[in-house]
Each structure stands twice: as C-alpha cells, then as structure tokens.
Structure to design on (169 residues):
C-alpha cells in the first residue's frame, strides 16, 4: 500500500522479476484489489493508492472502504508493505496509515521506493527519518529501487519474515 504513484505496481514487478502489474506515470492506474500468485507460496496484493489520483472522485472514494475491508476482514493477511517515496519525508497520510495499521495490529514493513533517485549518503538519513516519523523499528524500514533492482533481495527476505511469522502464529 502507499500513496498514488509511489511505485507499488513497479515494486511488485521488480520482486517477481516480470511484468505482472500494469504501471503508469499518472496516479491512479490501480483501481481495484489485484492478486498475484507467487510460486504457489503466497499472494502479493496490489492495492489502489491513497492521496491524489487522476481518476473521478467517486472512484477514489470507493478505494478506502474497499482497502479497509480487505485488510480488516482477511485472516490470511501476513503483513502490509507500506511504500514511501524516499525523496520526501513521510506524508501525514503515510503517518495516518501506519497508525491505523498499528491499531489493527497488522505487521508493517515500510519500503522506501525510488532509492536510485537519492544518493547513497542520504539513504541512511531517509531511513532514520522514516523510522522516527512512522514510529517503526529500524528493521521495519528498508529501501529499494524498482529501476535498478537494488534492495530487491532485502525486501524479499523481509516479506519471507512476515510469512514465517504468520505460519508460526
């Protein structure tokens, strides 16, 4: 999950190393909940973004209740990967979503996307800023670039951790 145009569909494509999710430069391409089977082991789920989207207001207004129902009423949900554009601090919407997820006791992994657009020296500062701003532990925040693939293996390892905790629960 994440803001519109933060790179949710692009990250999915990077993680599975093929184009399964449709992407677009204009915010709001993903308008439904899309499920993608991953090696018969789990599903990755692509959700509509929050915030601005280049779609009619009536369409955007359906996304919140649809996404909330999916997360709250889904006993198989192992965790939520919340994407934040690493070029900017987390937005008030990012903070509100992380707070809501914590209230619902849903495990969260924050992935800082578009890391190729930020120098290596600034990445650690962005991770610390995001960790503080979202109230997460440092191991819950990692960076990734869908364009270069950097961080892909780290994201997959973190997702595996979420799946293992779900199986053990």
């Amino acid at each position: 999950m994440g803001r519109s145009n933060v790179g949710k569909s692009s990250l999915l494509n990077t993680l599975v190393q093929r184009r399964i999710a449709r992407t677009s430069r204009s915010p709001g391409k993903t308008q439904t909940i899309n499920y993608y089977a991953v090696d018969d082991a789990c599903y990755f789920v692509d959700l509509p973004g929050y915030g601005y989207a280049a779609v009619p207001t009536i369409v955007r207004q359906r996304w919140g209740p649809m996404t909330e129902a999916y997360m709250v009423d889904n006993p198989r949900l192992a965790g939520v990967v919340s994407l934040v554009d690493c070029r900017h601090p987390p937005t008030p919407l990012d903070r509100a979503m992380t707070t809501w997820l914590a209230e619902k006791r849903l495990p969260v992994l924050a992935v800082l996307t578009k890391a190729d657009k930020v120098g290596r020296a600034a990445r650690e500062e962005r991770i610390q800023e995001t960790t503080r701003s979202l109230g997460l532990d440092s191991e819950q925040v990692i960076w990734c670039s869908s364009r270069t693939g950097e961080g892909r293996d780290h994201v997959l390892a973190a997702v595996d951790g979420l799946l293992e905790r779900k199986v053990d629960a």
